[in-house]
Specification:
mainly alpha; 1% strand
C-alpha cells in the first residue's frame, strides 16, 4: 500500500534555506580511476554546476517559498515562451489553414491558455514530490509503462530544439542579409544553449529570470512597427464546414504547442519545498506559459495577415518565417536588425528547458543509462537536434504541421490518465514520493497502459495530417479536421477508471 501524501505529513516542518539550487551530492567526492570520472568530478566542482540527475531532492536541499520564488516561476515560463518559434506557429492560422484574423487570433489564444493549464497542473508536483516530471509519471502509469511517455517526451523536447535552432538560424541569416547562412545561425543558437544547459538548474534559473526583458521589448517594438500593417479585415476561406474544421485543427495545434511543456512541468521546481502553495505554483505557471504564448502567437497571426497586402512581407515569407519576422521591423534600419538579433537569441530561452528535460529523460529510460551524468546527455541531445535542424532547415512548416500536433495527442492522453488517477484513486491513498525508484511500490500500470494505447488508437483514426487522414477526421469539413486530441482523450477517459479499479482490487497497488 502507498503512504499518505508526504507533503501533508511533513509540510509543517521547518525548511532550511540553502544558497544553491543544485547542491553537490557527497558521492561525487570519491576519486574515480578512469579519465571520464575525473573529468566529471572536475565539472562538478565548478561554481553553478548542477551534479544532480533524476535523484529525488531531499527536504534539506530545498529553498524557501517567498514571493520572489513564485515570481521566478512565472518569469521562467514567460521567458521560455515569448519567442520567435511561437510567432512562427501563429503564422500557420492564416497561411496554412486559411483562417481570418479574428478566427486565428481566438484559436491561438484559447488553445495556448488551455494547454498552459496542463503545464501548470504538472508543475505543482515538483515542490510536492521533489521528483522530476517523468519520475512522477511512474505514479500514474507504472514504473515500466511510464518509459513510453518518457521516450515520447525526449522526442518532443529534442524536436523543439530542432525548431528553435532552425527559426533562430533563419532570423540571424535574414539580419545578415543572407551573408550568413542559416547553417551558421543554427550552430550559434545550439552552442549557446549547450553552454547554459551544461551547468544545469542554477544557471538556467538565472538566465530565464532576465531573458524575458529583451524579448518583451523586441515584441512591443514589433507591435508598433508592424502592427499598422496587420490586416485585421481578412476572413476565413471556404464553406462553413471547412472553416469549422480549420478552426478546430488550428486550435488543436496551438493547444499541442502549449501543452507539450506538461511532461517537463515539474522538472524546474524540484528545489522548492513541499510547503510551496499549489495554487500559487499553478497560477504563476499558467500565467507565464499562457500570456507569453498568446502574445507570441498573436504576433505571428498579425504578420501572416499582412502578407496578402504587402508584397515585401510576402517575399519575406517565401524565404522563411524568420525573414517575415525581420520584415516586421522594416523602416527601423540598424535598430531593426539589432532587434532581429535579440529575437533570434531569444530562442535560446525556449531551447534550454527542453534540452534540460530531455537529458533527464535519457537517465529515466534505464538504470544503466542513469549511471551516466546529466551533462553528458545534454551534449548528446544538443548534437542530435543540431544535426536534425541542419538536415530539415528547409522544411520548417512541414515539421510544425506534421510533428507538433502528433505530439499533442499523447500528452493530452497522459494528462487525462494523470488527472483521473490523482483525483479518483489518490484522494485518500496519497503518494509515497520516497518510492520513486522502487517498482514494487508503484502501480503495475496495466490500466494506464491499456488506456494510453486505446487513446492512441482513437487519435490515429481521428487525425488529419498530410500523410494520413483518419476516417473520423474525414467526417468534418470538406478537407477533414484534426480530431485526434479530442477522440483520444475521450476514449482514454472512459477506459481508464474501470480498468484501474479492477487493477487496485486485484493487485492492491
Amino acid at each position: 500500500m502507498t503512504q499518505p501524501l508526504e507533503d501533508e505529513e511533513k509540510g509543517n516542518q521547518p525548511t532550511p534555506v540553502v544558497k544553491s539550487l543544485s547542491p553537490k551530492p557527497s558521492s561525487q567526492s570519491s576519486s574515480p580511476k578512469n579519465a571520464f570520472g575525473r573529468f566529471n568530478n572536475r565539472l562538478n566542482s565548478l561554481e553553478f554546476f548542477e551534479s544532480r540527475g533524476i535523484e529525488r531532492v531531499p527536504l534539506e536541499e530545498r529553498h524557501g517559498d517567498t514571493t520572489a520564488d513564485y515570481m521566478q516561476m512565472g518569469l521562467l515560463w514567460f521567458s521560455t515562451n515569448i519567442t520567435a518559434n511561437n510567432m512562427a506557429l501563429g503564422m500557420l492560422g492564416p497561411l496554412s489553414y486559411g483562417l481570418g484574423f479574428v478566427d486565428a487570433a481566438l484559436c491561438a489564444t484559447f488553445g495556448a491558455l488551455l494547454g498552459a493549464a496542463g503545464v501548470a497542473y504538472m508543475g505543482t508536483f515538483g515542490p510536492a514530490s521533489g521528483n522530476r516530471t517523468m519520475v512522477v509519471a511512474r505514479y500514474f502509469m507504472g514504473y515500466y509503462p511510464s518509459k513510453i511517455a518518457c521516450l515520447l517526451n525526449i522526442i518532443i523536447m529534442l524536436g523543439y530544439g530542432m525548431v528553435d535552432c532552425v527559426v533562430g538560424g533563419q532570423v540571424l541569416s535574414a539580419v545578415a542579409g543572407g551573408r550568413m547562412s542559416v547553417v551558421v545561425g543554427i550552430i550559434i543558437v545550439a552552442i549557446i544553449t549547450w553552454l547554459v544547459v551544461l551547468f544545469g538548474m542554477r544557471l538556467f534559473h538565472i538566465y530565464e529570470r532576465w531573458a524575458w526583458i529583451p524579448q518583451l521589448i523586441a515584441a512591443f517594438v514589433l507591435v508598433g512597427s508592424a502592427g499598422p500593417k496587420f490586416d485585421t479585415s481578412i476572413v476565413s476561406a471556404g464553406s462553413a464546414q471547412t472553416v469549422a474544421g480549420n478552426r478546430l485543427s488550428f486550435f488543436s495545434l496551438c493547444l499541442s504547442a502549449s501543452v507539450a511543456w506538461a511532461p517537463a512541468g515539474a522538472d524546474f521546481f524540484v528545489y522548492f519545498p513541499p510547503t510551496t502553495k499549489k495554487w500559487k505554483t499553478f497560477l504563476m505557471t499558467f500565467l507565464g506559459v499562457g500570456l507569453a504564448l498568446s502574445f507570441a502567437n498573436l504576433l505571428g497571426v498579425g504578420l501572416a495577415s499582412g502578407t496578402g497586402t504587402h508584397p515585401t512581407w510576402n517575399a519575406a515569407y517565401n524565404t522563411s518565417s524568420g525573414a517575415l519576422i525581420l520584415a516586421g521591423y522594416d523602416g527601423l534600419g540598424g535598430f531593426g536588425k539589432f532587434l532581429g538579433v535579440l529575437v533570434a537569441l531569444g530562442l535560446i530561452a525556449n531551447n534550454i528547458p527542453g534540452t534540460y528535460s530531455a537529458s533527464l529523460g535519457f537517465q529515466i529510460m534505464g538504470r544503466h543509462l542513469a549511471r551516466l551524468p546529466r551533462w553528458f546527455y545534454s551534449c548528446v541531445g544538443v548534437v542530435i537536434y543540431t544535426v536534425c535542424a541542419l538536415a530539415g532547415r528547409n522544411y520548417l512548416y512541414d515539421i510544425f504541421e506534421n510533428w507538433l500536433a502528433l505530439m499533442g495527442y499523447w500528452v493530452t492522453i497522459y494528462l487525462t490518465i494523470a488527472l483521473e488517477e490523482h483525483f479518483f484513486f489518490r484522494r485518500t491513498r496519497g503518494f509515497n514520493w520516497e518510492a520513486w525508484a522502487d517498482p514494487a511500490k508503484l502501480p503495475l500500470g496495466i490500466a494506464a497502459l491499456v488506456a494510453f494505447l486505446v487513446g492512441w488508437v482513437g487519435a490515429i483514426i481521428s487525425m488529419n495530417q498530410i500523410w494520413f487522414v483518419g476516417p473520423i477526421a474525414k467526417m468534418v469539413g470538406a478537407d477533414g479536421s484534426d480530431l485526434g486530441i479530442w477522440v483520444g482523450v475521450s476514449w482514454a477517459m472512459l477506459v481508464f477508471p474501470p480498468l484501474r479499479w479492477f487493477e487496485l482490487r486485484a493487485f492492491h497497488r
